[in-house]
């Protein structure tokens, strides 16, 4: 059962959100103020954070920045403002998704579920990964033999998903969910294109190995030994 933190200063909105999430089996801790949320994060861990932007004692964007510098917990920003600059700022600070008020509780629950599924395929929280890889979660980087790979956000998520199960075949649908979530414009061909560029970047660091293997009609796997 996933544990969620909701930082929302409007009690009416909070009650609606909590009801919708608890009906789907989630456990929700509600905080009205930024200070309360900070103390809650010091006392326990959560599987996902929902942070309002405008609060009486600050901004959820500040907490987003603080959390992202320390841990990869999925973050969903909530805001009454619908300007593009607010959404861009939240995403640049490390938020994983952004919902503008008023929103449908059903949509919010769907976004939460999608973020939790995507998080389950993220790189494991470890300083070292198999086969010479190293995951820097705070810096959102992956290194190969000590060399930082120049990855886009999507490539980072793709490689992270593969690193969670080296040798295991990941279907295109699984990789699409891990890197793109609910982006309806993305297709299997999008995965293939990004895998191609990811392979090229791995070869730049280690040209003697082919790390990503294609399994025709099935998907891709990460192999940590020369093939």
Topology as a string of helices (H) and strands (E): EHEHEEEHEHEHEEEHHHEE
Number of strands: 12
What is the straight-line distance between the termini? 40 Å
How many DSSP H or I helices?
8
Structural class call reads: alpha/beta
Taking all Cα atoms into account, the compactness measure Rg is: 19 Å
Spans with pLDDT under 50 lasting ≥5 residues? none
User: What is the subunit arrangement here?
Assistant: single chain
**Strand portion:** 15-25%
Helix content: 40-55%
Mean pLDDT: 84
Shape estimate? elongated
The spatial strand order of the largest sheet comes to 2-1-3-6-7
Largest sheet: 5 strands, parallel
Summarize the model shown:
This protein is of the alpha/beta class.
């Amino acid at each position: 059962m996933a544990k969620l933190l909701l930082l929302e200063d409007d009690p009416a909105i909070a009650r609606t959100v909590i009801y919708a999430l608890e009906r789907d089996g989630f456990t929700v801790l509600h905080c009205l103020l930024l200070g309360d949320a900070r103390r809650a994060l010091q006392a326990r861990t959560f599987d996902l954070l929902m942070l309002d932007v405008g609060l009486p004692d600050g901004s959820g964007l500040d907490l987003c920045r603080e959390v992202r510098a320390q841990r990869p917990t999925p973050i969903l920003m909530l805001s009454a403002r619908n300007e593009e600059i607010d959404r861009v700022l939240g995403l640049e600070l490390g938020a994983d998704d952004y919902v503008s008020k008023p929103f449908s509780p059903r949509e919010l629950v769907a976004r939460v579920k999608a973020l939790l599924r995507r998080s389950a395929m993220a790189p494991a929280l470890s300083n070292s990964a198999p086969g010479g890889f190293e995951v820097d979660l705070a810096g959102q980087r992956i290194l190969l033999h000590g060399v930082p790979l120049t990855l886009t956000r999507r490539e980072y998520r793709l490689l992270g998903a593969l690193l969670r199960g080296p040798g295991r075949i990941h279907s295109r649908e699984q990789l699409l969910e891990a890197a793109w979530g609910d982006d309806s414009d993305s297709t299997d061909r999008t995965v293939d294109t990004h895998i191609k560029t990811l392979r090229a970047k791995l070869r730049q660091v280690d040209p003697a190995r082919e790390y990503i293997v294609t399994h025709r009609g099935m998907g891709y796997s990460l192999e940590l030994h020369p093939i």
